[in-house]
Fold these 2 entries.
Entry 1:
Amino acid sequence: MEGREKWLKLIKNVRQGDRIVFDSVSRMSRDAEEGFTAYEELYHRGIDLVFLKEPHINTSVYKKAMESGIEMTGTTVDYILEGVNKYMLALAKEQIKICFEQAEKEVKDLRRRTIEGIETARLNGKQIGRAAGTKIEYESTKQKKREIYKYSSSFNGMLKDKEVIKLFGISRNSYYKYKREIKEEIGWNRNTTYTVIKKCIEKGAVERFEPKFRCRALISKKDAQEYETEELIDRMFEGSKKNFFAAMLSENSLTAGELEQLKDMVNQMK
């Protein structure tokens, strides 16, 4: 509908000597009769119509056909010549009509094939369009959710919410929205838990023993934290611990008590 309104506005505002260029006849009109009527109207208003895929029906070609009639001789032969001229004009008009009719047929055929294809796919059990309740998720959103899942203490990481928000530059509303979505997507059940534990056992991080399904961590929390911290620093701060601490200490994100504790820790390392 919007395209139709723009087209009506265009043909209303064009003036004699203006030129309108179309990729093909079908872009001017998908109805043969309507298209030919508009063509003749614009032609008589002195508008130059150009069709890139059907140059033989450009208004310049039509105009040439209109003007290239055989001159009258002033004899009885003129009756024949007049008939020939009328035939040439009729032939030029017919060529234009045929192009519009062909464009209309192609559009109808395409529409029919599309409907048939959709119906065939539906009968074969394929999902047509987006399933109800689904939504489009951009790669940038997926990446943020992966980072939250990896570094937030609510999931696989050890950082507090405010630290993750600051580290990745996410607004509070977006952060908590992503957290809710992650929890919905994970939807862990007993089987999922067993699968994760099995993978941890295979990697030597967890030990299972009887009776029942009892497990014990083979890696201390301290070792896991050190590994995660090193990986975070390498990934986000190019291995610079100084830049990491600068990010954590900026904008007064730590309390006075926490700052004193850090000072004591640094002094002990000297």
Entry 2:
Amino acid sequence: MSVLLETKDLTVTFGGLNANDHVDLKVDSGSFVGLIGPNGAGKTTFIDAITGFVPTSAGSATFGGQDLSELKPHQRAQLGLVRTFQSLELFEDLSVRDNLLVAAYPTRWYTLLQDIFYVKQKKNDVEEKVDWALEVAGIAHQADILPTDLPHGQRKLVGVARALAAQPNLVLLDEPAAGLDTAESNSLGTHLRDLLKHDITVFLIDHDMGLVLSVCDYIYVMDFGKIIAEGTPSEIRTNPEVISAYLGEEAGEIQARSAEELRDMTIEGNE
């Protein structure tokens, strides 16, 4: 397989601190790659840097062999590099289907003469893309519903489907399973794996370890902005550095919960 996305020494600095610290990462065409790490590890910043939403301080990123450094976000999207966001940017007054139609229409300008002759063809092409994206995301039955009438988990799926409607070469998914229950997450994983059948490469960030380990072919682990491990799901499961990073996070959460419980007990004892 050929390399579709590659970063070398990619660094993003905020206020003198490296949110991404010399990150080397490759995504082969036709693969399903994951990026995991504790909260605040720099995972979303990495996607922001690749898609042009934050500037890089050092290093390089290429997509299909083309240097991305001078390209704006919409230009990178035109190359086939598309992403989702943790914060859903949906048009609340448009139906699910119309949200996808907005994303699927070409971003280049047409002359009036071209519009007259090709508007029907364009419309048919776009509607086919939207129908496909709705089906792949498993929300075809909710096409005419407003996003405001959907539960959070289903709204996340609309965000995924809207990215797919552009029929990208590579889709970067930022926490698509957030807010989903176990059954919904498993269903999402099945749909996402199916993207490979449609020649769409997938790069997934998610805190749902079960999802990442079950769907990804290869996984990178980030902590404090650095890649601390990489390998197949079976290799990542047993990697000591990965276990240490996640145990540290869990220990912090346990400590915080214990502090809250102690505080509640103290309050109750004083009543």
